[in-house]
Amino acid sequence: MKVEYSIVIPIYNSEASLTELLERIHSTMQSIHVTFEVVCVNDCSQDRSWAKLKTLKKKYFNTLKIVSLSKNFGQHSALFCGFTYAKGGYVLTIDDDLQHAPEDIPLLIEKAKNAGVEVVYGISKEKKGNLRKFFSWLWKFSAKFIDNGLGKGSAFRMINSRVKNAIIKHPQGIIFIDEIIQWHTHAIGFVKISHYPRKYGQSNYSSYGLFKFITNVSFNYSTVPLRLMSLAGGLISCFTFLLGLWFIFKKIYFGVEVKGFTALIVTILFSSSLLLMGIGLLGRYLNQIFILLNNKPSFSVSEEEL
Predict the structure, then answer these.
(1) 210-236 per-position pLDDT tens digit
(2) HEC profile for 155-174?
(3) How far is CA 203 from each of CA 7, 26, 174, 200, rounded to the nearest angstrom?
(4) How far is it, in rounded angstroms, from Cα 11 to Cα 287?
């Protein structure tokens, strides 16, 4: 039987929410009379999520596929793994925390059909802490105004099979689904959805984790750090050049002796630190090239039940 929709869910420490999540997904998809499958990828959870998935597999044996990764690879790598198992003409992704309602899935489907787009994002107003809100704003600002990105998106998305197949073929050790999507299509739509407080547990994305994620994506999918470094070098060069002209002017026209051993040392140390920072940035890029050339996989499966 041909599968119309595949729903891929990255699972991490969500034992408490899995039963309700899968019940609501099945109820929603059955109510709109479509063929579907659910692919749950356990990203090496520390709780009993995998055991819970095995139990739920017995109940939804016709529609549920479960996969367990050998270590924690991250949300986007888990999604990438799920894409390799998805057989539907469209692939939907949704988080495991029930902050996005499965009942909103028909909104994405309707938008894709009526707007003729290849990708649809469900957009909502999410309430976050001040630090997480700042990092999220920083990332979206950088993506939109520095790296020509969309500047918005979410984990609740739907993509067609063409884009999904293109993502699977993407040779990248560190995966960021949204950036890869933008490489393969500009036919992207958005639809407003609801957002709900997390019902069980706490977010697995800390402020540090979000900062680390932004850093990894910046080095793997853009040249923003190098461009910022070049900009800083240019500005400092202009400043020091003008400062030198000012000292020469004072010496020639006013006979002022230019003193300042301390200022000289500070200038040398500052310029040296910039050089070391630049070498470090280049080292990060060389490291990513090394990983890519060695064909380091983005995930490794330890167990599956299909």
Answers:
(1) 666 666 666 666 666 766 777 777 777
(2) CCEEEEHHHHHHHHCCCCCC
(3) 21, 24, 22, 9
(4) 29
- For residue 24 the two structure tokens come to 């609501």
Assign 149 a pLDDT band (cuts: 50, 70, 90).
low
CA distance 72 to 77: 9
Fold held by 5-222+298-305:
Spore Coat Polysaccharide Biosynthesis Protein SpsA; Chain A (3.90.550)
What is the DSSP-derived secondary structure letter of residue 294?
T
Q: How many CB atoms lie within 10 A of CB 136?
A: 16
What is the identity of the amino acid at 198?
Answer: R
Edge-to-edge, what's the strand order for the sheet holding 301-305?
A: 188-192, 119-123, 157-160, 90-93, 5-11, 36-42, 64-69, 301-305
User: Does the pTM exceed 0.85?
Assistant: no
- What does the angle CA 182 – CA 183 – CA 184 come to, to the nearest 5 degrees? 90
